Amino acid sequence: HASKEALTEEGWLLKKKLGSRVYIPGHHYQRDEVIQFADDRGDSLRLAQLAAAKKEAEYIIFCGVHFMAETADILTDKRQKVILPDHRAGCAMADMATIHQLERGWKRLQNQFGDTIIPMTYINSTAEIKAFCGRHGGATLTSSNAGKMMQWAFSQKERILFLPDQHLGRNTGVGLGIPLEHMVVWDPIRETFEGDAGTRTQVILWKGYCTVHELFTEKNVADCRKEDSDVRILVHPECNYEVVRQADFSGSTKYIIDVIDHAPAGSHWAIGTEMNLVNRLKHNHPDLKIRSLNPMMCSCLTMNRIDLPHLVWSLAQLEAGDAPDTIISVPDAVAKDAVFALKRMLEQS
Ligand code: 13P
Ligand code: SF4
C-alpha cells in the first residue's frame, strides 16, 4: 500500500510520460486528490463540449461518473478510447430511468396524449435513454441550459416528457412560468401518474431525483436563516421545489462557482450541493463564510469512487501498454441515435 504522497508523485510522473496521448477531464464534484490531475474541470455541459472538441488524445480518462464517460464516448472520435477508472462510479439518478420503463411508459403516454409529446432528458441518464430521445425528436439538456432547452422543446411539441430528474424539470418549468398544476409526475414503477394528467398538462415529470441533492431540506433552510440572519442560500436545481423557492439563488454547478467567485468579501453562504465542491469553495475563499446547507455534508458516493488509487492504476496500465479494462464503449446502434439528442443540445448551447 503506497502512501498518498507516493501515489500522487507516481500519478504526476505517469501523466508526464503519457503526455498528450491522455486527456483528463474532471467534474467539479470529484475529490481534490483526483481533480488536481484534471486538464480541464467543468460541469456536465462543459465536459460534454470539451469531449466533442478534443480530437488529439488517444485516451480520455474521465474523472466523473458513468453517464459522463458514455457521453464522452458518444461525442469523441471512434479511435479515441474513454476510460472510467472505476466502473462502479454510476449515478443514482441515471439509474432511476431504464429503457424498458421508458418504452412501456411512452406507450401509455402516447395512448393518452397522442403525438403531442417530446421526450427530453437530463444528461444524467443512460446512453439508451439519450438514444430514445434522439430517435423521437428530443434532446438532452443540463442544469446550465435546461430553460433554453425546454423552450426549444415547446417550439417542437405541446408537451414535454422530462427525464429523469423531477426536481430539475419542475424548477425549470416554474422558471419558465408554467403553473405547478400544469406539471404532473409519472411514476415509472407503478406506471401511473401522481396527480391529474389532462389537456392542461404541459410537463410530465419522470419520478427520479438525485440522492445527494434531495438531502437538502426546508428545515435546513429555516435552521440556517435562524442561526445567521445574514446568510445567503445558494442551491443546485436538483434540490426540491420548496428548497429552491426558499433559497436566494439557484443554478448549475458552474453558476454556483461563479456566484461564489464574485461574492462580496465577508459575505455568508450556505450552499446546497455536493460536499467536495462546497469544501473546495470554502478552501479557495477564506474571506467568505461558507458552509453546507445541510450540516451533515452531503457527498456523492459514486463520484467519490474515482479515487487516487484508481486514477493512478488507469494511468499505469496505459503507460505499461496494457489493454485498459476500464474502457467505456457505447454500442454503435445506441450511439448513433444518442448523438442526435446531444448534438441538438450542443447546437443550442
Ligand atoms: P451539473 O454539472 O450540470 O451542475 O450537474 C450536477 C450533477 O449532479 C452532476 O452529476
Ligand atoms: Fe448522480 Fe446526484 Fe451523484 Fe450527480 S450528485 S452523480 S446526479 S447521484
UniProtKB/TrEMBL annotation:
Catalytic activity: iminosuccinate + dihydroxyacetone phosphate = quinolinate + phosphate + 2 H2O + H(+)
Keyword Amino-acid biosynthesis (UniProt): no
TM region positions: none
Pfam families associated with the record: NadA
GO MF annotations, alphabetized: transferase activity
Positions contributing to iminosuccinate binding: H27, S44, Y122, I123, N124, S143, H236, P237, E238, T253
SUPFAM superfamilies, A to Z: NadA-like (SSF142754)
The protein's enzyme class: transferase
Keyword rRNA-binding among record annotations: no
Origin: domain of life: Bacteria
E.C. designation(s): 2.5.1.72
Subcellular localization(s) per the UniProt record: Cytoplasm
Positions bound to [4Fe-4S] cluster: C91, C210, C300
Pathway: Cofactor biosynthesis; NAD(+) biosynthesis; quinolinate from iminoaspartate: step 1/1
Note on how the cofactor is bound: Binds 1 [4Fe-4S] cluster per subunit.
Alphabetic keyword roster: 4Fe-4S, Cytoplasm, Iron, Iron-sulfur, Metal-binding, Pyridine nucleotide biosynthesis, Transferase
Cofactor(s) listed: [4Fe-4S] cluster
Similarity comment: Belongs to the quinolinate synthase family. Type 3 subfamily.
HAMAP family assigned: NadA_type3 (MF_00569)
Functional note: Catalyzes the condensation of iminoaspartate with dihydroxyacetone phosphate to form quinolinate.
PANTHER family in UniProt: QUINOLINATE SYNTHASE, CHLOROPLASTIC (PTHR30573:SF0), QUINOLINATE SYNTHETASE A (PTHR30573)
Protein name per its UniProtKB record: Quinolinate synthase
The gene coding this protein: nadA
